[in-house]
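seq as requested:
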Amino acid sequence: MSSTTEWVTLEQAHQALRSVAAQLGDADWARHTPCEHWNVAQVLRHAAGDQRGYAAAITGSGGPTEDPFAPSENAPESAQGYLESALSVTTAAFATVAPATPEVPCPLPIGPLSAEQVVDAAALDAAVHAWDIAVAIGVPSPLSDELAEQLTPIAETIAGPLRAFAFGPAQDSESGDGAAARLLRFLGRTPDWKP
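struct tokens:
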């Protein structure tokens, strides 16, 4: 397998997460988020842990340092450093996955998926949590319609089995929704959510 595979959609999603992490201030960590019962610190920790989960599924190492579904409420010492550590491990793991590989290990409870599907699932997780943080702290959403269009097929593949614990019930699209709003509604989020 190639050791230098580049996955553009994953990099775009990682960049979305980086962009909001770079805007976090001390007053932001305790803010409420669209992820009910979780503050900004928990969403960032969860997102980083999920990315590490994808890396560990592929390589057998580099997994989460805490349970991503029970993240600490405390801010990491450095938001960007904490996140970058996770994203670099994930990027390195996916660089070993060749395109069109039919079965790639995946941390989701739906078994192995194709290379493209696993990459897109990791990207979906990063991009949607970037949106969660952005709206919680009142900065522009990094989830573009273009990125949302790329991620919608994997959302349609994995959301059903994961609704019990990862996604809320799908909401009906509304007139004027773009691709990002439609994706968010499909995943049980409210595009115009406010703290």
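DSSP finds six helices and no strands in the chain.
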